[in-house]
Amino acid sequence: MDKRISASHVYPFLKELKQNYFVNYRKLGREKIYNLTDSGKKFVNETLSRFNEVIQESLKRKLSKCIHCGCEVYNNKYTEIINGKKLAFCCCHCADSYKKGIKHGKH
Ligand SMILES: [Zn+2]
User: Fold this and answer.
1) Spatial CA neighbour of 35 closest among 48, 44, 46, 25
2) Dist. CA 40–CA 27, nearest whole Å
3) Greater pLDDT, 86 or 75
4) What is the 67 CA–ligand 1 centroid distance (Å)?
5) Interval between CA 54 and ligand 1 midpoint (Å)
6) Ligand 1 mean position to 72 CA, how many Å?
7) What residues are paired with 79 via a beta bridge?
8) In contact, 90 and 79? CB cutoff 8 Å
9) What residues are neighbours of ligand 1 (ion), with CB under 5 Å?
10) 70 against 14, higher pLDDT
11) b/e string for 57-77 if b means 16 or more Cβ within 10 A?
12) What pTM was estimated for this model as a whole?
């Protein structure tokens, strides 16, 4: 997944901020120096914390634990159906060890 933020993301965001008087800017030579206004700071903080909540929530939902080693697995990284149950593992090696454990009566 590409997590980089490109200019095509930043400029519409800046434009929106400007329209709502959340930023002001001054010119320094050929550059524009942007500053958040007080209401802009409030807006950004609220937006970021909401964004953070959404991310935390979606991570929680996708989070499960590897049945073999107990480490946290995102997005069911490796699943296998064993004895009719869909089980989540962190990797195929854990799944193999788990299956060997079944054979030896460990589970
Ligand atoms: Zn594991």
Assistant:
1) 25
2) 19
3) 86
4) 7
5) 27
6) 8
7) 88
8) no
9) 66, 68-69, 90, 94
10) 70
11) eeeeeeebebbbeeeebeeee
12) 0.45
Please report the pLDDT score of residue 10 as a whole number. Answer: 76
Give the three-state DSSP class for 31. Answer: strand
Ligand 1 centre from 30 Cα, in Å?
A: 55
**Residue 62 Cα, ligand 1 centroid: separation in angstroms?**
16
In the structure encoding, which two tokens stand for residue 27, read together? 């010119």
pLDDT at 107: 60
Residue owning tokens 């997005």: 75
Cα-flanking dihedrals φ and ψ of residue 36, to 5°? -80, 135
Q: What is the mean pLDDT of residues 49-75?
A: 84
Q: How many CB atoms are located within 10 Å of the residue 30 CB?
A: 5
Encoded amino acid at 86, one letter: K
Identity at 94, one-letter amino acid code: C
